[in-house]
């Protein structure tokens, strides 16, 4: 693909690095930004830079946050005895969009995957155990809401073993309204919401 400007070529190259964006789409985006008002392009660039350099992670649940504690963990109206464990921030967003869950979250930061070299120590598992087992812990139920893939099931099994001996803490999994091999972020809101409501409590 030939470009009339090296600057356009560089912009297309960077935009095409984004997931799902090919070079043709990247070119359309670049040309759109070029034609847009200067303030529009400047605002986009500023928003992306602030997002990248100023976003932090919640000290409690490890979700993305604008402060040391995210809005969900800081919300006293949420049920802090109920902790939904997910692998990724996108799963938090997906579950929140159902409007049916009023507890709090714990973001693992991935799933156990020996093929990719990701083990339990690479995830936020120890902090989950500490959160559920502390003397002043409010946690009474841990919901394992992890995508039902091979790696997800391995992670859920490992978490169950780590948490099963904690007194007064029940472990449950979301109901299998999510298809085997599916990803939570792609599930429709009704199915995902019912999966949370109809979760299966483990012994």
Automatic annotation (TrEMBL):
UniProt xrefs under Gene3D superfamilies: 3.40.1360.10, 6.10.250.240, RecR Domain 1 (1.10.8.420)
Any Pfam family: Toprim_4
Origin superkingdom: Bacteria
ZnF (C4-type) residues: 58-73
Keywords from the UniProt entry: DNA damage, DNA recombination, DNA repair, Metal-binding, Zinc, Zinc-finger
Start and end residues of each Toprim domain: 81-179
Keyword Zinc-finger: yes
Keyword Kinase: no
Family: Belongs to the RecR family.
Role, per record: May play a role in DNA repair. It seems to be involved in an RecBC-independent recombinational process of DNA repair. It may act with RecF and RecO.
Database matches in PANTHER family: RECOMBINATION PROTEIN RECR (PTHR30446)
Protein name per UniProt: Recombination protein RecR
Lineage: Bacteria, Pseudomonadati, Bacteroidota, Cytophagia, Cytophagales
């Amino acid at each position: 693909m030939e470009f009339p400007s090296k600057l356009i070529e560089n912009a297309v190259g960077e935009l095409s690095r984004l997931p799902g964006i090919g070079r043709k789409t990247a070119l359309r985006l670049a040309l759109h930004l070029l034609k847009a008002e200067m303030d529009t392009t400047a605002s986009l660039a500023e928003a992306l830079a602030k997002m990248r350099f100023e976003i932090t992670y919640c000290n409690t649940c490890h979700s993305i946050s604008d402060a040391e504690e995210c809005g969900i963990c800081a919300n006293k109206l949420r049920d802090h005895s109920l902790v939904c464990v997910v692998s990724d921030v996108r799963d938090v967003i997906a579950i929140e969009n159902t409007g049916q869950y009023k507890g709090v979250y714990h973001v693992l930061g991935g799933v156990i995957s020996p093929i990719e070299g990701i083990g339990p120590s690479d995830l936020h598992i120890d902090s989950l155990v500490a959160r559920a087992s502390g003397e002043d812990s409010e946690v009474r139920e841990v919901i394992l809401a992890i995508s039902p893939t091979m790696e997800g099931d391995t992670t859920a099994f490992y978490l169950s073993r780590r948490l099963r001996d904690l007194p007064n803490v029940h472990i449950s999994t979301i109901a299998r309204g999510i298809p085997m091999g599916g990803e939570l972020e792609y599930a429709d809101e009704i199915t995902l919401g019912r999966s949370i409501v109809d979760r299966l409590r483990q012994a």
